[in-house]
Design a protein that fits this description.
alpha+beta
Length: 509
Amino acid sequence: MADSKREVERKYEATPETRLPDLTRAAGVSAVVHRGLSELDAVYYDTEDLRLAADSLTLRRRTGGGDPGWHLKIPVSAGVRDEIQAPLTDTLPPDLGELLRSRVRNTPVTPVVRILSARDVHHLLGEDGTLLAELSIDEVLAERLTGEGHGTTSAWTELEVELADDADPAVLDAVERRLRKAGIRPSAAPSKLARALAGTAPGAPGTERAKAPSPRTAVDHVLSYVRRQVTALVELDPAVRRELPDSVHRMRVATRRLRSAFRTYRKILDRQVTDPLRDDLKWLAAELGVDRDQEVLDARLRSHVSQVPAPLLLGPVSARLKLTSVARRTGSRQRVAAVLDADRYLALLDSLDALLADPPLLPAAARPPEDALPRAVLKDYERLATRIGHALEHDPGEERDVAMHEARKAAKRVRYAAEAARPALGKPAKKFAKRMKSVQSVLGDHQDSVVARDALRTLAVQAHGAGESAFTWGLLYGREEAAAAERERELPEVWAWASRPGLRAALKG
């Protein structure tokens, strides 16, 4: 994978006559050192319809300065981006191309803008000479290379302050106060590319996001929820490829929420269209689950082992656990990468876009949200109540384990359905979702124990076969049995609290 760093910067309006104030009066800044001038030549790439720009991503090939090469910038929050860098080559490096896949699919990226910058660089140093931030004043000339505005140019001057690695972000606030006092104001454009696109072809696609209308009908709220989950899938794709913490889990949750929405609101969106999507989302969630489930299991077992007193750790317990974990996680990571490059996955993203562009509406779609949404949520609730009752009928054992797992999946559906309805139904939907989450948590911890016991049994067999003591694995198995029994005792009380009739009545309004 290409090199990556977190970029934290702020941009300001400037003119060729802009003069810097005395920044040594900014808290923490002891010296300002002029580092000289440099010439930068950057060509920015995008699809013909500017999909990257629409999502505030920038991809450029730049020469000059201290870091020539390919740079992909992915937004994290306001003023914060992850910059992934690759060496200077004639063609787009494959590693960067993979990170664009969820946005561009099979559409090629081509040069759209060339930006020439004459950069005057200053370093802001702390009392011990440590670099706090880099300030540059850029004279910029942009030329549109394709599409609307082809051949048009735009020129401006801007000032950038970029935080140094590991520096305190408070430095940026202190510097900004001095700049503002000198009459230097923040830029309205988030990036050079955004300003270049707006300056060379104002109003062209990709230069700004269209504001979605306020939801009014039941389907407006459902589609708004679906759109948020589709956006999450697309945005989390590069995070999963980069193996960022919690990214697989969040992407899997988005697939489950979509599946739940299509099932719960099947009186609003036609099943003939959504059922095939649910099948593909189930496939994607299962593939992502191979890695996520292993991640959860590893954390659970490591926690258990860390709590065992040293005299009871018989044999190479930690070493065996680590070896087994690494072997399984390596295979699951490779599998996830292959799935995200699969034609079926890319076709799913296209199909979800098509559904949002032309939703398959049924008559209930036009109903008021306070009428249609509670009905759908409470129907899922009744399914959950049936499954909870079924689980509680069984004696402890395999049948109860299976029944509780089925109830857990139903609890997730009800929770997701209530979350989707929350913008329309307000506080009752919020409380309803919170209570369903409490039920899901009890059932989820029980299922995690079932999975952990199966893994511990396997580890005990492997240890015994290698001539090691299996005592510690048996000890942990017993603890997991006790944890599962506790969750089973806890479930009736939690369910009674979560399923009080008054809350369901409030949901209906």
